[in-house]
Design a protein that fits this description.
Strand order of the largest sheet: 3-2-1-4-7
Structural class: mainly alpha
Distance between the termini: 46 Å
CATH topology of the largest domain: Rossmann fold
CATH superfamily of the largest domain: 5'-nuclease
Largest sheet: 5 strands, parallel
Order of helices and strands: HHEHHEHHHHHHEHHEEEHEHHHHH
Length: 478
C-alpha cells in the first residue's frame, strides 16, 4: 500500500537525493541575499554549487527579472549595515558614538554635585562652638570613596576610548573585506544558471484569471500578495507556473531554494512546503517537489560530500544563518510597522466621522433631536475608543520594541484620550448651554489638533520603516 503521507512529505534522504539528481531552482530572495555574504563565503558557496550541481541550476524568468530590478539597491547594503553603527545622527543604529558620548558625561556631574554638597555640609558642621557640629572623621570614608570613584570613572573613560578605536578599526577592516564592486553574483548566474523562458503577456493574463480564484480560496502560492496592484500580485504564481512547466518538460524532481517564508509557500506547522504545492506538482509532473532556505540547502549539500575537507565550512553556514535571521527579523518589523501605519491612517478617518457626527448634533435647534444626535455621536465615540484600544493592544508592545525611543504607545494613547475627552466634554457642554458657532469652532480645533498629532506619529513610523530597510528585496520584493 502506498504511504500517501510520505508520497508528498519527503524525508531528509529523499531531499538530498533530489539535490544530487534533480533541478535546483533559486528564487529572487535566495539570489539577492548572497550579496550580504562575505566574499569568502560567496566563494565557498559558488565553488561547491558549481562543482556538484553543474548543468542543473535554473532560475525562473520572473525571478531573474525581479533580481535584476532589485540588485542595484542591494549591492551596497551590507556596507551600510556597518557604517550605520558609527552614525552619530541615528540613535537607533549609531550605537558606537552614542556609547562614547554617554561615557564622557557618565557620573561626572553627579560626583560634582555630591562633592559640592559634602563640602557645604562640612563647612556647616565644622565649628565645635556652634550648632550644628559633627565629628569630621565621619566624612573621611566618603571622601576616599569619591576619590576612588573618580579614578574608576577615568579608567572607564579610557576603556571606552580604547573600545571606540578598536571597534572602528574592526569595522573598517570588515568593510574592506566585503565583496568588491565586481558583481560576483551576476557573474555566477551568467556562467552557471539556465534562465527560464519568459511568459507572454497573454499567458500572464490567463494565469492571473486562475489566480483570482486561487487567491479567493487561499490556495498557494502568492495569495499573500493580493494587496498589490496589477500583475505584480501574481508574481509568485508566475514563478510557480514556470517551475511546473520546466519540471514537466525536463521530467525532473525539483528543489526550490528560497528565503521567503510566507505562509502561501511554507507550512510552519509541518516544517514543509504547503501540501497544495506538493500535490499540484506531483499531479502535473509525476515528480517530487521540495523547497528549503539557503542555510538548509547548504546543510544538505554537505551531506552529499563524503570528504570533510571538501565540505562547505561551518563558518560560512553560520554566517548565512545569521544573515537569514536578520533579514527575517526586518521583514517582521516591516510587516508590523506597515500594519500600524495603515491603522493610524484609518484612525484619522474614524476621527473625522466622529467629528462630523458631533457637528450634526451641534447644528440641531430642537433639544430633543439634538439629544438624539448626541447619543448617536456618543455611540460613535465609544466605537472609536473600543477600536483604538483593540488596535493599540495589538501593536503597542511590538511598536515599543521596534522603536522604544519614539514611545509610540504613549503618544498614541495620549492623542486619542485627549481628543475623545475633549469632544465628549464639548458635547455635554453644548447640550446644556447651546452655542453652535462656538462649539463648532472648538470641535474643529480639537479635530485639527488630533490630526496634527496623529500625522506626527505617521511621520515617525515612516522614518522607522526607512531606517529598517531602504530597498525592496527578498521578503519585500514589489
Amino acid at each position: 500500500m502506498i504511504d500517501l503521507y510520505k508520497k508528498y512529505y519527503l524525508e531528509e534522504r529523499d531531499i538530498i537525493s533530489i539535490i544530487s539528481n534533480g533541478i535546483i531552482v533559486f528564487d529572487t530572495s535566495a539570489l539577492l541575499d548572497i550579496y550580504y555574504y562575505s566574499e569568502e563565503s560567496q566563494t565557498h558557496i559558488f565553488d561547491k554549487v558549481r562543482s556538484e550541481l553543474n548543468g542543473r541550476l535554473w532560475i525562473p524568468a520572473q525571478c531573474y527579472f525581479e533580481f535584476l530590478k532589485n540588485k542595484g539597491t542591494v549591492i551596497g547594503k551590507p556596507r551600510r549595515f556597518y557604517e550605520e553603527l558609527l552614525d552619530d545622527s541615528d540613535k537607533n543604529k549609531g550605537f558606537v558614538p552614542h556609547i562614547v558620548s554617554l561615557s564622557k558625561e557618565f557620573g561626572k556631574k553627579d560626583i560634582e554635585k555630591i562633592t559640592g554638597l559634602l563640602k557645604t555640609l562640612k563647612e556647616t558642621t565644622t565649628k565645635k562652638d556652634k550648632h550644628p557640629y559633627l565629628n569630621q572623621e565621619l566624612f573621611i570614608e566618603l571622601d576616599e570613596s569619591i576619590k576612588e570613584l573618580e579614578k574608576q570613572i577615568n579608567f572607564f573613560s579610557n576603556v571606552v576610548e580604547k573600545f571606540n578605536t578598536n571597534i572602528r578599526n574592526e569595522i573598517k577592516q570588515i568593510v574592506n573585506d566585503l565583496p568588491t564592486e565586481t558583481d560576483n553574483v551576476q557573474q555566477f548566474i551568467d556562467n552557471n544558471f539556465e534562465i527560464g523562458e519568459e511568459l507572454s503577456f497573454d499567458k500572464m493574463i490567463q494565469i492571473s484569471e486562475e489566480g483570482r480564484v486561487r487567491y479567493s480560496e487561499k490556495i498557494p502560492p502568492g495569495y499573500e500578495d493580493d494587496n498589490k496592484i496589477g500583475l505584480q500580485k501574481y508574481g509568485d504564481l508566475f514563478v510557480w507556473k514556470e517551475i511546473l512547466q520546466m519540471a514537466e518538460k525536463k521530467n525532473k524532481d525539483v528543489v526550490l531554494i528560497s528565503n521567503d517564508v510566507k505562509s502561501d509557500w511554507w507550512d510552519e506547522e509541518q516544517k514543509a512546503p504547503r501540501y497544495e504545492l506538493l500535490k499540484e506538482f506531483e499531479s502535473k509532473t509525476k515528480k517530487n517537489f521540495w523547497c528549503c532556505s539557503m542555510n538548509r540547502f547548504l546543510y544538505y549539500m554537505n551531506n552529499l560530500m563524503e570528504d570533510d575537507d571538501n565540505k562547505i565550512p561551518e563558518k560560512t553556514i553560520n554566517e548565512v544563518d545569521d544573515i537569514s535571521k536578520k533579514i527575517f527579523e526586518d521583514s517582521l518589523k516591516m510587516e508590523i510597522l506597515r500594519g500600524a501605519l495603515d491603522w493610524v491612517t484609518e484612525l484619522i478617518k474614524i476621527g473625522d466621522e466622529v467629528s462630523l457626527k458631533l457637528e450634526n448634533s451641534l447644528n440641531q435647534d430642537n433639544p430633543d433631536i439634538r439629544w438624539d444626535k448626541y447619543v448617536v455621536f456618543s455611540n460613535a465615540l465609544s466605537d472609536m475608543c473600543q477600536k483604538y484600544h483593540n488596535e493599540v493592544n495589538k501593536y503597542s508592545l511590538l511598536l515599543d520594541d521596534i522603536g522604544a525611543d519614539l514611545n509610540l504607545k504613549k503618544v498614541l494613547h495620549k492623542t486619542v484620550v485627549t481628543y475623545t475627552e475633549g469632544i465628549r466634554e464639548l458635547g455635554e457642554l453644548y447640550i446644556h448651554k447651546p452655542d453652535t458657532t462656538k462649539s463648532t469652532n472648538i470641535n474643529n480645533a480639537l479635530f485639527k489638533a488630533f490630526v496634527s498629532d496623529i500625522e506626527k506619529v505617521q511621520t515617525e513610523i515612516s522614518k522607522k520603516i526607512k531606517s529598517i530597510i531602504s530597498f525592496e528585496t527578498g521578503y519585500f520584493i514589489e
